[in-house]
Every structure is written in structure tokens, then in C-alpha cells.
């Protein structure tokens, strides 16, 4: 058997049929369900008899290795229940698994559809994921949003829309907030016993928001890019706050420390605004913005 498709599910009835229709080209489809309460398993059984159940811990990583253990193909393609494999990507996959090569793992880009539109800024593109690999060469840890360990040579498919998963991610702000609440709770709980430093809300927000907005070019993404930079910054604040609550740390920074953190936010924001203005200016104006960037004014 050459290729197994592995899909891990949880209440995915809304999207699963579309996903499984797109992967019918595989020699084997394996679905591992995390105790769904909707029609996920019924839909899965219309496409394959290899449907298994595993414990639901609230996120997918602990189920990954169990899912992989059920695959029998020489190659495995991991597909999420809200993703679609296009015909062009399918052809590329079928081509590379026939190559005589030392490559054991291919990372594939994801075309993230957020709030109804493909988002290419704020760190959401190309969003490479190690998804196509020889069986036994990739292993996940149980940590939420962890990257798997690859044993052997790994390469990336081109960052090309035609060769990317179509990932139908958050459909609404409410869905983003709901999943943020779940994921931040799990992440905060996972830090207990491993981490003792509770970071202040200003610092964690500044680090994530500015990174998403400027280096990762959310500023070029219109309202969605700006919104995602702020939402992801807020997600970091919520995670830090939940960890603070679990640690029962009554005071993590003094008023002077808070004022310093706010001053640093203001200074770094001034730097990035000046940098952006400098890039879009000429002559004296560009020199002025360069000077302001240097002084963070």
C-alpha cells in the first residue's frame, strides 16, 4: 500500500464530507474521532471502514500518534477535517511519493480562509505544515500546537496557492473567541509545574501584536490583517492571565514596572510606524522618518 490519508476529527460534521471527497485518491483513508457528539462518525463511515475512536482532551496533538499507528501505507498524508486537497496538490503528492529520493517528509503550505477570505498576511501564509511523510519518520508530542519531530531529510513544497491545502479556518469572530478560550486554558494548564514566570499583559500583547502587524505584514492585510494581529495579541494576554490565576500570583509587577512596559510599547510602536513611513517616503521626508525611527519618536 502506497499512500494512507489520516484525518483526526471532533464534531466535524459540517466540513468532513468536503474533506473526505477531496482525498479519495488515496489507497487508504483512516479517520480517528475524538468522541464526537454530532454525525462525524456516520459521515466518515460513508468513505472508509477504518474509523477509530480515541479520548478527547480538547485538542488534536495527543491523538496524532494514535492516528498514525493505524495507517498502513508506505507514505502518510495528514489532513485536518476542515482542509481540502485540490486536484493540483493531489497530483503533486502522487508524483513525489514515486520519486527515488532521500526525502522522508514534505511540508505543505496552507491557504487559510479566515472570516470568509484567504489571509496572506499577519503570519498566516504560507503556514507550512509537515504533512506528507514516510510512515515512521514523524512523531508528534502531546503539547498543544507543537511541531512534530522529523527523522530524516525534509523539504518544502513551493509556496504556491495551487499546491496548498485549502484550510477553512475560523468562520466567525465568535468561533475564534471560543477556540481561543479553549486553547489558552489548555496552554496555561500545561505551563503549570514547568514555568514559574508570569509575564505582564502589556509585554505579551506588545510582543505578539507588533510581530504580527509589522514583520509579518498584517498592516498590509486591510481590516483582517489588523484585526488578527490584535486578536492574537489578546490571545497571548488571556493565556498569561489564566496562568497567573492558576499560579495565584497576586502581584506580578509594580506600578513603575507597568509604566515601563507601557513606555516600551509606545517606543516600539513609534519605531515601527517610522519604519513604515520611511519605506513609503522619499528625500527629506524619508530622512526625517529614518531619524525618528532611530530615536523611536
Structure description:
The strands form three sheets. A seven-stranded mixed sheet has the order 3-2-1-4-9-6-12. The chain contains nine helices and 13 strands. The chain has helices spanning 16-21, 40-45, 61-69, 87-96, 173-191, 201-213, 222-247, 255-279, 283-295; strands at residues 3-9, 28-33, 51-53, 75-78, 83-84, 103-108, 110-114, 117-118, 129-134, 138-139, 149-150, 153-156, 165-168. The mean pLDDT is 94. The radius of gyration is 22 Å and the shape is globular. The chain is α/β, with parallel strands linked by helices and 297 residues long. The protein folds into three domains: 3-168, Spore Coat Polysaccharide Biosynthesis Protein SpsA, Chain A (Alpha-Beta Complex); 172-252, no CATH class; 255-297, no CATH class.
Attribute tags:
297 residues; alpha/beta; Spore Coat Polysaccharide Biosynthesis Protein SpsA, Chain A; 7-stranded mixed beta sheet; 4-stranded mixed beta sheet
Quick take:
The protein is of the alpha/beta class and 297 residues long.
- H/E element order: EHEHEHEEHEEEEEEEEHHHHH
Can you tell me the CATH architecture of the largest domain?
Alpha-Beta Complex
Query: What is the CA–CA distance across the termini?
Result: 63 Å
Uncertain ranges: none
Number of strands: 13
Give the CATH superfamily of the largest domain.
Answer: Spore Coat Polysaccharide Biosynthesis Protein SpsA, Chain A
Helix content: 40-55%
Which structural class do the helices and strands define? alpha/beta
Q: What is the CATH top level name of the largest domain?
A: Alpha Beta
**Major β-sheet strand ordering:** 3-2-1-4-9-6-12
What general form does the structure show? globular
Mean pLDDT: 94
Q: What share of residues are in beta strands? A: 15-25%
What fold name stands as the CATH topology of the largest domain?
Spore Coat Polysaccharide Biosynthesis Protein SpsA, Chain A
Instruction: Domain count, please report it.
Output: 3
Amino acid at each position: 500500500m502506497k499512500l494512507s490519508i489520516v484525518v483526526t476529527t471532533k464534531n466535524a460534521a459540517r466540513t468532513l464530507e468536503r474533506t473526505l471527497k477531496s482525498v479519495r485518491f488515496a489507497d487508504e483513508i483512516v479517520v480517528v474521532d475524538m468522541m464526537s457528539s454530532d454525525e462525524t462518525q456516520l459521515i466518515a463511515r460513508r468513505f472508509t471502514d477504518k474509523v477509530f475512536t480515541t479520548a478527547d482532551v480538547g485538542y488534536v496533538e495527543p491523538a496524532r500518534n494514535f492516528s498514525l499507528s493505524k495507517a498502513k501505507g508506505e507514505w502518510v498524508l495528514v489532513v485536518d477535517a476542515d482542509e481540502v486537497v485540490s486536484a493540483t496538490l493531489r497530483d503533486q503528492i502522487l508524483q513525489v511519493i514515486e520519486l527515488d529520493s532521500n526525502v522522508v517528509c514534505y511540508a505543505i503550505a496552507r491557504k487559510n480562509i479566515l472570516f470568509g477570505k484567504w489571509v496572506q498576511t499577519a503570519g498566516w501564509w504560507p503556514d507550512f505544515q509537515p504533512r506528507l511523510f514516510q510512515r515512521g519518520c514523524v512523531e508528534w508530542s502531546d503539547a498543544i500546537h507543537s511541531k512534530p519531530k522529523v527523522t530524516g531529510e525534509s523539504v518544502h513544497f513551493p509556496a504556491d496557492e495551487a499546491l496548498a491545502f485549502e484550510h477553512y479556518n475560523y468562520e466567525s469572530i465568535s468561533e475564534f473567541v471560543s477556540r481561543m478560550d479553549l486553547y489558552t486554558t489548555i496552554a496555561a494548564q500545561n505551563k503549570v509545574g514547568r514555568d514559574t514566570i508570569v509575564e505582564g499583559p502589556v509585554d505579551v500583547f506588545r510582543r505578539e501584536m507588533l510581530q504580527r502587524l509589522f514583520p509579518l505584514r498584517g498592516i498590509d492585510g486591510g481590516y483582517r490583517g489588523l484585526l488578527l494581529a490584535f486578536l492574537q495579541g489578546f490571545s497571548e494576554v488571556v493565556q498569561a492571565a489564566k496562568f497567573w490565576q492558576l499560579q495565584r500570583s497576586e502581584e506580578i509587577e509594580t506600578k513603575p514596572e507597568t509604566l515601563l512596559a507601557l513606555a516600551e510599547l509606545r517606543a516600539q510602536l513609534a519605531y515601527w510606524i517610522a519604519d513604515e513611513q520611511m519605506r513609503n517616503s522619499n528625500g527629506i521626508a524619508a530622512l526625517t522618518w529614518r531619524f525618528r525611527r532611530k530615536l523611536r519618536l
